[in-house]
Amino acid sequence: MYASRIGLLLLLMSAVLLAQGMDVTGRVSLRVFNVDYDETSELNPDSANYGKTTLVPGLQQYLNMAVFARTSKLDISLLGDIRNDKWTPLDSYKRVERLTLSARFSGNEIVLGDFFESSSELYLFSRDVRGAKLDFVFEDLWNRYAYLQTRVVGGIVQKAVKEGEALPTLYKQYVNSALYERYFGSAQVELGERDKFSIGLNYLYAKDDPNSITESVNSPLLNQNAGLNAALYFWDQHIKLFAEGYASKKDTINADKAEDYAYKAGLDLRFNKVKLQAFYQRLGYDYYTAGNPFLLNDWQGVKLLGAVEVVQGLTFDVEGQQYSNNLKKFDYLPTTKTRIAGVGLNTNFRRWPDLSLRWRFQDDLSNDIYDDDNNLTRTDKISRTFDATVGYASGNNRISLSGIYVNLDDNSLVFGDSTQATEQVVFSLNFYTRPSNLLFISGGAVYSTLRMTGGEQSKNLVLYESSRWDIIPMKLKFETTLNYILNKADGGKGYNDLLNNYNQLALEVALEYFFTPNISLKVLGGSDGRRMDYTKEQALKVIGDPDYGPMYFNGYETYNGIKYGAEINWIF
C-alpha cells in the first residue's frame, strides 16, 4: 500500500515537471535481488533478535533515482532511495530511506523530505532531518553588498522505535531500549554586508513525543538553544574575526533541568601563501543541542591551525591545542589537561610523486583522585603519531602508499582497570588504472596491527577491488567487485578472541546490456561468506557460561551465502 502510494507520488511529480516544459534529465535504477544462506543457527535457533550474520537474507528491492529539471531561473531535483527487504519491510512511509524534493532559484532554496543540515558545530551540524527547509536571501538592502538571510528548518530528527524493535534500515541484531519520535525546529536570521560584517540570531527547539511509544527506560526530552554569531572582515577580507555563543536548556520529566552555555571566538588570517586560524572555545558540562547530539562537551581551551606555502608545491602546516575538562570541578572526577602539537609537510611538484609527512604529539595530565575506599584514579597518557603518504599519477594511472604509526604510553590508574591501546601500525595501498577507454581497474589493501595493554593484540588485512570492461562499447559491460577481510586476535580477555578470528569474502560479478544508450539491464550474481575460527564445542561452552549467555555470538557465526538478481537502469 505505502509502496504504491510512493510510486504514484513520483509519477505525478514527473508528470508535473514534464508539463512545465522543463529540461528534465536524470537516472532511475531498480534492483531486485535475492540473498540466500542457511539462517538456522545451531547455537541460538529460537531468538527473533539473533542471527548468524548481519547480512540481510531473502528477496530485496532497491529503487534509486535522481531527477533534475532546469529552466533559466529554476533548478529542481528529486532524489530517492527506497528499500524493501525481509528485516525492514516497506510497510510504512517511515521505512523510506530517503526521498528529497528541492528547488533553487535566485539564491533561495526550498527543500521537502530528507536532507542533511549544517550551520555550526555548536548549534546544528550534519543533522539528518525529515521535514522541510526554507532558505531565503534578500539582497541589495541599503547597498548592493547588504543582505538578509533567513533559514527555517523543521521536521523529525529521530524516528520512533519501539522497545526491542530494530532500528530502521539496520540489521535485526541492533535492537534498542526504545526511541521517542523527536520533533525539531530551527530559525536563523543573519544580517550583513559582504566584505565587512555579519551578525546572526539562532533559535532551536526540540521535543520528544511521549505518545510515540508506549514505554522506554529513557524519559522524553525537551531542548532549547538560543545564541548569536558574528563576523568582522578587515584588510580586504584577509582578516576575519569571528565569534558565536549559545545557551542551552535540557529538560526531562524524571530529571532536573540542565542549563549551560558554549562559545567560540577567534581569528582567521589568509594572506598570499599564509593561512592561520586561532580560537578559544568552551563547551559546558551540561551544554546540549539536539542539532548535534554527539557533540563532545565538558572542555575549554584554545586551538591553533596554520599553513604556509614556502615555495610553489611545498607547504608546511602546524597544529596546537590545549584544553581541560571537568569544568564543574566534581571532586570524584580527575581534571585532565590535554596538550597537542603537530607539524606537517606536503609536496605537490609537477612530474614528481606527491609526499605528505606528519608528526603529532599529545599528552593528558590529571590530578589524583581517591574514593572512599582509597582507590586511586588518574588519567595520564602520552601519544605520538607519525604518518606518511606518497602518491604518483601518470595519465590515467594513480597509485598511493601510506603508513601510520601510533605509540601510546598509558600511565592511567583507573579502578577496575580498562584496556588501552599501546601501539598501532597501519599500511595502505590504493591504485587506479585505465589502460584504455574500455577498461578500468581500481583497488587496494589495508594492513593494520594493534597491541593492547596486557598482551592483547590483533592483526587485520582488507583487500578490495572493482573493475569495468566494455566488451562491446556502448552495448555490453562486465563489472566485478571484491572485498576480503582477514582478522586475527590473540591474548584477549575472556572469550573475545573467538569473535575476532575470522576471514570473510564478498564477490560480485555483473553483466550489463544496453538496449539503447538510455536503457540497460544488468544481471548480477556473487557470493558472500564468512568462516569463524572457533568450533561448535567452544561456542557451546561460552553460551553455557551465565556471564555470557546465548546471545554472545549474535552476528558472529560462520555462513555461506549466494546472491543473484537483476537491475534495470533508465537514463534520460
TrEMBL record:
Record protein name field: TonB-dependent receptor
Signal sequence segment: 1-19
Native source species: Caldithrix abyssi
Keyword annotations from UniProtKB, A to Z: Signal
UniProt lineage: Bacteria, Pseudomonadati, Calditrichota, Calditrichia, Calditrichales
